[in-house]
Predict the structure.
Amino acid sequence: MKPDAHENLVESFVREVKNSRKYRFICEDTIRDVITTALPKYKKSRDAIKTARTKLHRIQAAYLGKNRIGDHLDSIQAAYQANDIGALKTVCLRLMETHSSTKERIPIIDHFYKEIFAITGVPQTVLDVACGIHPIAIPWMSLPRNVVFYAYEITQDLVDDLNRFMQAIGLEPHVKYQDVLCSPPQECGDLAFLMKMVPCLERRQKGLAIQLIENLRVRNVVVTFPVSSLAGRSKNMPQFYTESFLRMVDDHEWEIRKVPIVGELVFVVKKQKDED
C-alpha cells in the first residue's frame, strides 16, 4: 500500500470510530495505534480493519456502560466535606460494585493497601496507570493529605468524572486522557499501580507490558493479576500468571516481592533499591 493510501485509510478509520456512539470517547492515539499495528499484518485492508475493530472492542469492553461516577459526585463531596469517611466509603463501594475488577477487591480492600505499603512505604506521589475506576479506592489508601495522584485513562468521559471525583475529595485533578502505551507517563513518582492490566496489554501486543514497566519513572510498580475468571473459576490462573510474569521480568535487575494477599495476585517491582 502506498504511503498516502495508508495514511488516508488510517485517518478514515480513526474518524469513523470517533464518530460512532459506542467508541466516541476513546483516545485517538489508541485507535490510530491499533489500526497502524494491524495493517502490515494483512494483505487486504478489510482484514486489518476487522482485526483492529476486534482489538478496540477488547480494549474498551471492560469499561463500556460501567461509568456511574457522575451520578454520585454530590454524595461523595457531601461526605468528604462532612468528614464522614464511613459515608464516603459506602458511596465508593457502590461504584466499585459496578466494575468486575474492583468488585473482586471489595472483600479484601480494608487491608489491601496496608499490605502493599508495608513493602513500598506510603507514597507521596502516585501514578495510576490505565486506571479504570481504581482511583475510587483512594479513601482506603490512607495517603498523605498533600499526596500528588496522577492517573491515566483512554476514555474521555471517565477521565472527566475521575477529575471531578478528585476535586470532590480534596485532591488536585491530575487524571490524564492518555494512552500510556503510545505516550508513556513523564511524571516521576514513588509508586505506580498497574492493576490487572498486564494480560490486557499483552493481548493488545506482546511485549507491551514490560516496555511500559521499564518506562515508568517510579521507585516501585504494583502489578496485580486476577486469581479467577469472571465466572469464578481459578483454572490455575495464579500459577500461570506468576510464572509468566517472572519470565517477563527475568532479564532485569529488579527486586520482585510477592505481597501476601488472598484474593488477588500482587507483586511489587522495586525498580530502585531502598535507601539505607
